[in-house]
């Protein structure tokens, strides 16, 4: 333990602490504060309960004196994963010491002091690969990109765009000098880059930040050329702006703006307003408050749920992503998505659109790759956005649950298409937890540049690699998964969207029974797969059959059914 | 004229037998065509659709004749609650003249006809006659149906067998034949389980103090602790606060049977309603009179409140679903709140019984809220009732046997749509069951489709199961010999109604979470007519099963093909990956986000 940590720990061990957890009888034992964890061990000979709580996952802490003349204290810990724990600690001084340790150690500023830099499980080695893919790999694997798109290393030193990775995919016709100029016209240097290529018709999804047209309608030839080069002369592209038209207009006063029709002839702009930042954060806080409201009787729960507006944010995210997917798949247009900075709602929309369109992103690995590409490498500022979740009374700075919203919308997709996703709700819950506090380095920092500077990849383990290990993977797989090549169009009616009880009511009895049920279903499906195996062999030989008309007729029949 | 061959309706799976004969006009199964007519169906989802309507004595069938549309309607006449003429011969506006049909299953139908020549007169007359046969001195369709099934559903339930399953009679409880000819209570079944220590004479005296003679009788006994659920109607206390020593002693005998320290009486009503009932001669068990009993009011509202609540729910889901303020609108119907109260009442009962205390459950007459509470508590306590057959037994026993007034509540074959006796009490119960199946996805052998089928035939009048108000009337109308049981349909095709994820070893008591946070609207039932709402999450298990079935079918077909043709050469299929039948839900349904 380094000096800085021990400075924060005045009382390392307290005995006779009572721990109250949701759904468990109170436990008595020893509480121990370490640099990164709270450890509680029940004082019992056999089968004693141990709690290991990552201090980083503490969102807020409340302390109050109890007992005669304040002889003991109670600490209530509200975790970022929405769990609430209570410790009753004998001795006022001990209580205050423990509380101040938790406060200090749960909000360490320096990234390299965080637990991922110390997490060294025996079964993992730092020499293992970090991350699942890179733009290079993505490019190399998509042969059909090659004649029109190229890899650019214009950002190799992160000098063109601080928040982009070193390599990006751009139109062949645009050289690096042009790119750099276009970048100077986009907020934060986030010039339009490719994020998805639709194999069936060659259309693409790109993303960027807003153009800096400003009050006097500046233009940038290079930016115009870049977008022009992304589509054919004869084609029409769509810009989906995640702001309202009014917001986009107003952004000009602050130096931002939008692509004017006069200069971007082949692009049509559509505005779909998605809330972001503070509004989203407050929505989450309201929702969690409503969920935790202990007055369960006739408490107008549905009104509270509606007032939190969380589900309407889910609605906007899914319907805007649906719009993008519709442009690409049904109408055959390429799309550029951006809002303001292009690091939040933009990523939400592009990644959901890919889930709708791309069967590869619905596999276990594919989904993690999607998150890595569209969120981690694309520079979603996890560090600021996920500093606190819904409980913190600390003054909020740049917190915003955009990533949580993505996970929620993904859950809705999984609920509407129970067979379409290879991963289960358990994975989404795990990601929701790790985005806010983790043993792994994946969600540390806000950009690749920062990750490089702090040598995150050299000194932490990668969550995604870990989850893909065989023994882990099993926990997160959807037993009902059946791959489909079709797009999965979500229904976005309010009647079709549900509260994600697995996350927001996670620490209730209900979640427990659902966990049990999930396990039972797993067992049943596994057993069934065992017995089905011979049939599996059958169809590989049968699939070489040439009586197509018959088979096709049958397929039609099945489709109708 | 091959309209019946392309008939396909996912919501009603079986009466094809009937339909095929429609065109041949041979009333093979008691079903015959009376009319076919060209008209316009004013579909709330697809707009005005030209088509043909066929009316038989069982159903109304519509098929659009537009080339582009394949909309069909298949509505058992029993589902129709109200038929009205819309517009007059002189009303203006397109499609303003026709018929407006209100259904009992959360939809309305509107047909427009040509304005000249009294074109709707015949069809209105026929519909009115066959939708409300009892109002026209005609029999219900169930008595005309000639359907045959492999299984005989009437053999599912035999009260003595069911009591034997519960190890009854026992030392403390006997089966009484006092009601053999429905003399004690004409709305009770023939066989009653009563305390061994109570003589038939005692029972008669207790009956005088209970509304409509519905005395406390045993519904269920806990195998280990011998605590019982007994059900009855309210005591006839009246304004003067009458007491009845026999009734008091009788309840005490029930308490003593397993040594329960204090008997708990669950009165399903809100306290004020129970007090108000005194004015009409009813009331509740007072503290003074029943000293070893605790009275708990469960605050469940009466049939009128439930009817209005469902009406409000229908307003926000049909024809258009409320969009802007969906959740608060849903809240203002109070439907889920009522569900919550019923479920939490049942939870309290189940909890009390499993802790070893006997309980008495009643409301006013003991055939609505009481049936909801006892049957839900039994579903929580006894895993047998969670099987496909056990659930049928539960309904036969607690609902049909103990005289839930199906005829009055549903209004079978009766034109009087405004009858104040109608109320969706049984639907509300099935909704509660559905909520439980959602919370315990592996604990129930039957699936969602089974519940929906039961509700469809609650109204259809195709089966005798839900006809009439009580056993005595059912007997005198010879329902068992003259009609087919709904369980015949279901048990002849069990695979379709079974939950593939059912694990039979789950025999513990199931306590659902009855908090508003964990209840959801049963979208697949209440909003099922709206094609724009995806019936998502609709039985995950169902789809999984369908998929397996499709795949099996597919593989079988391929095997056959391979046998018939032994030249494996082409590579076309090899490329098209494995035979994944596109799922019904994964078609390209249009997202409602027009540019």
From TrEMBL, chain A:
GO terms for cellular component: cytoplasm. GO terms for molecular function: protein phosphatase binding. This is Myotubularin phosphatase domain-containing protein. Residues 129-504 form the Myotubularin phosphatase domain. It comes from Electrophorus electricus (Electric eel). One of its GO terms (biological process) is phosphatidylinositol dephosphorylation. PANTHER family: MYOTUBULARIN PHOSPHATASE DOMAIN-CONTAINING PROTEIN, MYOTUBULARIN-RELATED. Signal peptide: none annotated.
From TrEMBL, chain B:
Its EC number is 3.1.3.95. The active site is at 363 (phosphocysteine intermediate). GO terms for biological process: mitochondrion distribution; muscle cell cellular homeostasis; negative regulation of autophagosome assembly; phosphatidylinositol dephosphorylation. Substrate binds at residues 302-303, 363-369. It is an enzyme of class 3 (hydrolase). One of its GO terms (molecular function) is phosphatidylinositol-3,5-bisphosphate 3-phosphatase activity. Keywords: Cell membrane, Cell projection, Cytoplasm, Endosome, Hydrolase, Lipid metabolism, Membrane, Protein phosphatase. It is a peripheral membrane protein. This is Myotubularin. It comes from Electrophorus electricus. The lineage of its organism: Eukaryota, Metazoa, Chordata, Craniata, Vertebrata.
């Amino acid at each position: 333990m380094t000096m800085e940590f021990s400075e924060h720990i005045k009382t390392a061990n307290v005995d006779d602490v009572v721990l109250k957890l949701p759904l468990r009888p109170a436990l008595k034992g020893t509480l121990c504060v370490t640099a990164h964890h709270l450890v509680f061990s029940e004082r019992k000979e056999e089968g004693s309960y141990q709690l290991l709580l990552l201090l980083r996952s503490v969102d807020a802490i409340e302390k109050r004196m109890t007992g005669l003349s304040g002889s003991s204290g109670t600490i209530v810990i509200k975790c970022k994963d929405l769990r609430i724990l209570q410790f009753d600690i004998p001795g006022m001084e001990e209580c205050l010491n423990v509380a101040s340790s938790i406060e200090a150690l749960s909000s360490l500023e320096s990234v390299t002091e965080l637990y991922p830099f110390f997490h060294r499980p025996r079964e993992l080695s730092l020499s293992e690969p970090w991350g699942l893919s890179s733009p290079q790999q993505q490019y190399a694997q998509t042969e059909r990109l090659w004649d029109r798109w190229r890899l650019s290393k214009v950002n190799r030193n992160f000098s063109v765009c601080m928040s982009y990775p070193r390599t990006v995919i751009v139109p062949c016709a645009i050289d690096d000098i042009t790119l750099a100029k276009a970048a100077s016209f986009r907020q934060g240097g986030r010039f339009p880059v490719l994020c998805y290529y639709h194999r069936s018709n060659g259309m693409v999804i790109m993303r960027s930040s807003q153009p800096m047209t400003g009050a006097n309608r500046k233009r940038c030839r290079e930016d115009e050329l870049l977008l022009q080069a992304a589509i054919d002369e004869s084609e029409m592209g769509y810009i989906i702006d995640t702001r309202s038209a009014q917001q986009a207009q107003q952004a000009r006063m602050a130096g931002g703006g939008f692509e004017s029709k006069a200069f971007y002839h082949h692009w049509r702009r559509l505005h779909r307003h998605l809330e972001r930042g503070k509004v989203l954060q407050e929505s989450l806080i309201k929702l969690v408050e409503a969920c935790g409201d202990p007055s369960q009787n006739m408490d107008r729960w549905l009104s509270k749920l509606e007032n939190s507006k969380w589900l309407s944010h889910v609605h906007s995210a899914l319907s805007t992503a649906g719009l993008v997917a519709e442009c690409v798949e049904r109408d055959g247009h390429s799309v550029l998505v951006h809002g303001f900075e292009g690091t939040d709602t933009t990523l939400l929309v592009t990644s959901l659109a890919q889930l709708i369109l791309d069967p590869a992103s619905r596999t276990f690995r594919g989904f993690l790759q999607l998150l890595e590409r569209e969120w981690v490498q694309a520079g979603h500022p996890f560090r600021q956005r996920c500093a606190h979740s819904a409980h913190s009374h600390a003054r909020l700075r740049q917190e915003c649950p955009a990533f949580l919203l993505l996970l929620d919308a993904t859950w809705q997709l999984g609920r509407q298409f129970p067979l379409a996703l290879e991963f289960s709700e358990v994975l989404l819950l795990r990601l929701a937890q790790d985005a806010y506090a983790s043993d792994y380095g994946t969600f540390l920092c806000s950009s690749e540049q920062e990750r490089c500077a702090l040598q995150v990849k050299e000194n932490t383990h990668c969550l995604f690699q870990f989850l893909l290990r065989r023994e882990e993977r099993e926990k997160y797989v959807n037993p009902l998964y059946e791959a489909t090549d079709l797009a999965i169009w979500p229904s976005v009616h309010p009647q079709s969207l549900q509260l994600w009880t697995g996350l927001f009511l996670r620490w209730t009895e209900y979640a427990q029974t659902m966990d049990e049920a999930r396990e039972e279903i797993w067992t049943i499906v596994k057993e069934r797969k065992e017995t089905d195996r011979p049939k599996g062999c059958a169809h590989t030989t049968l699939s070489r059959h040439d009586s197509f008309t018959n088979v096709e007729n049958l397929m039609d029949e099945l489709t109708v059914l | 004229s091959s309209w019946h061959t392309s008939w396909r309706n996912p919501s009603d799976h079986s009466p094809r037998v009937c339909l095929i004969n429609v065109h041949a006009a041979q009333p093979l199964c008691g079903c015959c065509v009376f009319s076919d007519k060209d008209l316009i169906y004013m579909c709330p989802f697809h707009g005005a659709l030209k088509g043909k309507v066929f009316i038989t004595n069982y159903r109304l069938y519509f098929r659009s004749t537009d080339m582009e549309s394949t909309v069909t309607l298949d509505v058992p006449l029993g589902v129709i609650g109200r038929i009205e003429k819309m517009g007059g011969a002189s009303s203006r506006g397109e499609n303003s003249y026709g018929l407006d049909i209100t259904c009992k299953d959360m939809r309305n139908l509107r047909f427009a006809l040509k304005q000249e020549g009294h074109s709707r007169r015949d069809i209105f007359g026929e519909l009115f006659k066959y939708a409300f046969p009892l109002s026209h001195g005609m029999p219900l369709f169930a008595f005309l149906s000639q359907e045959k099934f492999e299984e005989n559903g009437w053999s599912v339930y035999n009260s003595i067998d069911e009591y034997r399953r519960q190890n009854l009679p026992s030392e403390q409880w006997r089966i009484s034949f006092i009601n053999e000819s429905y003399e004690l209570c004409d709305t009770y079944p023939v066989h009653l389980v009563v305390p061994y220590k109570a003589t038939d004479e005692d029972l008669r005296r207790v009956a005088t103090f209970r509304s409509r003679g519905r005395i406390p009788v045993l519904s269920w006994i806990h195998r280990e602790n011998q605590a019982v659920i007994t059900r009855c109607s309210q005591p006839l206390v009246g304004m003067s606060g009458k007491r009845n020593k026999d009734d008091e002693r009788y309840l005490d005998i029930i308490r003593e049977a397993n040594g329960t320290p204090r008997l708990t009486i669950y009165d399903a009503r809100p306290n004020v309603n129970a007090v108000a009932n005194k004015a009409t001669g009813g009331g509740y068990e007072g503290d003074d009179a029943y000293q070893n009993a605790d009275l708990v009011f469960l605050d469940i509202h009466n049939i009128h409140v439930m009817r209005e609540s469902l009406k409000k729910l229908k307003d926000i889901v049909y024809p258009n679903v409320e969009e802007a303020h969906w959740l608060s609108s849903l809240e203002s119907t109070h439907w889920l709140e009522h569900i919550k109260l019923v479920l939490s009442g049942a939870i309290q009962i189940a909890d009390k019984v499993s802790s070893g205390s006997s309980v008495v459950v009643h409301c006013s007459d003991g055939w609505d809220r009481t049936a909801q509470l006892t049957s839900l508590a039994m579903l929580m306590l006894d895993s047998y009732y969670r099987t496909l057959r056990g659930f049928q037994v539960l309904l036969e026993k607690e609902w049909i046997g103990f005289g839930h007034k199906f005829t009055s509540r549903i209004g079978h074959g009766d034109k009087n749509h405004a009858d104040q006796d109608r109320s969706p009490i049984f639907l509300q119960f099935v909704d509660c069951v559905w909520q439980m199946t959602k919370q315990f996805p592996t604990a129930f052998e039957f699936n969602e489709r089974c519940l929906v089928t039961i509700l469809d035939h609650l109204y259809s009048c195709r089966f005798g199961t839900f006809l009439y108000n009580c056993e005595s009337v059912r007997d005198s109308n010879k329902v068992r010999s003259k009609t087919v049981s709904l369980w015949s349909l279901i048990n002849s095709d069990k695979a379709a109604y079974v939950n593939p994820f059912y694990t039979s070893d789950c025999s513990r008591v199931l306590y659902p979470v009855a908090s508003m946070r964990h209840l959801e609207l049963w979208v697949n039932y209440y909003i099922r007519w709206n094609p724009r709402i995806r019936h998502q999450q609709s039985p995950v298990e169902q789809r999984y099963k369908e998929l397996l079935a499709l795949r099996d079918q597919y593989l079988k077909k391929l095997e056959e093909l391979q046998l018939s043709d032994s030249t494996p050469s082409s590579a076309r299929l090899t490329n098209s990956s494995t035979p994944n039948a596109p799922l019904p839900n994964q078609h390209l349904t249009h997202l409602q986000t027009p540019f």
